[in-house]
TrEMBL record:
It holds the Pfam family V-set. This is CD8A protein. Residues 33-125 form the Immunoglobulin V-set domain. Residues 1-19 form the signal peptide. Keywords: Adaptive immunity, Cell membrane, Disulfide bond, Glycoprotein, Immunity, Immunoglobulin domain, Lipoprotein, Membrane, Palmitate, Signal, Transmembrane, Transmembrane helix. The gene is Cd8a_2. GO terms for cellular component: external side of plasma membrane. It comes from Leucopsar rothschildi (Bali myna). The lineage of its organism: Eukaryota, Metazoa, Chordata, Craniata, Vertebrata. It is a single-pass type I membrane protein. It is found in: Cell membrane. Transmembrane segments: none annotated. GO terms for biological process: cell surface receptor signaling pathway; cytotoxic T cell differentiation; T cell mediated immunity.
């Protein structure tokens, strides 16, 4: 499955190869070190192409979870029912967004944006999101 392929390749792909660049930056809250339970968290994946993007969550135990695939036309495919109600996903002008509607301890971990380009997977650096 595509999710399994992404999970297996996490340690093997490097951003920046062949001119690809992925960057995740937190838009809100401005200081990620002060996350609170129930807070809305917005992540943005800036890319140099518009081919769709995956969002992956690596929890505190190191387990990887497929959250969503966002197509270039903004169609979303969530990994499970909880993801579809707990997260929002969209894209605009080569930027792919993930929103955690109400942050919980279960949401702590690192978030990755992943793209498939020329049959290679490109991973962004992980964006840590932890409660204080």
């Amino acid at each position: 499955s595509p999710a399994l392929l992404l999970l297996l390749a996490l340690g093997f792909c490097c951003p920046g190869i062949y001119g690809q660049s992925l960057e995740i930056r937190v838009r809100s809250p401005t200081d990620i070190t002060h996350l609170q339970v129930g807070q809305r968290l917005e992540l943005e994946c800036q890319t140099d192409n518009n081919r769709g993007a995956f969002w992956i969550h690596k929890d505190k135990r190191g387990t990887l979870h497929f959250i969503v695939f966002i197509s270039s036309t903004s169609r979303t495919t969530f990994g499970n029912r909880r993801s579809a109600t707990h997260f929002e996903a969209s894209n605009y002008n080569k930027n792919y967004y993930l929103v955690v509607k109400s942050f919980t301890p279960q949401d702590e971990g690192n978030y990755f944006c992943v793209m498939n380009f020329n049959q290679m997977l490109y991973f962004s650096p992980g964006q840590p999101a932890f409660l204080p």
